[in-house]
Design a protein that fits this description.
single chain, alpha+beta, SH3 type barrels, 2 domains, five-stranded antiparallel β-sheet, rod-shaped, transmembrane helix
Length: 101
């Protein structure tokens, strides 16, 4: 009789562990997967960036990319040719390709 109770207790403990594994897996799927997907989208956007594209920075400024290096870009803001600011690629939030008109 005691052997039966001990076996039932072990099965119950395994069921609890299985529930925890399922909950943690569900949390990963709901929280981490979309973040990884967004990181891949941003990396793809930054890799297709070219000179002449319009960039929206994370601070909300629009500018035209005039030079690209490995980690940095130089962005020209407004009509003033003297307003050229170097910034990290991570500061680019969105890229707009020039329209073919």
């Amino acid at each position: 009789m005691n052997g039966l109770l001990a076996a039932g207790g072990a099965t119950g403990m395994g069921g609890i562990i299985l529930i925890y594994v399922v909950i943690i897996g569900g949390m990963w799927f709901l929280l981490m997967r979309p973040q990884k997907k967004e990181q891949k989208r941003v990396q793809a956007m930054l890799s297709t960036m070219e000179v002449g594209d319009t960039a929206l920075t994370t601070s909300g400024f629009y500018g035209v990319i005039i030079d690209i290096t490995d980690d940095d870009v130089i962005v020209e803001f407004g009509n003033n040719k003297n307003c050229r600011i170097p910034m990290q690629k991570a500061a680019i939030a969105q890229i707009e390709k020039p329209s073919a008109e």
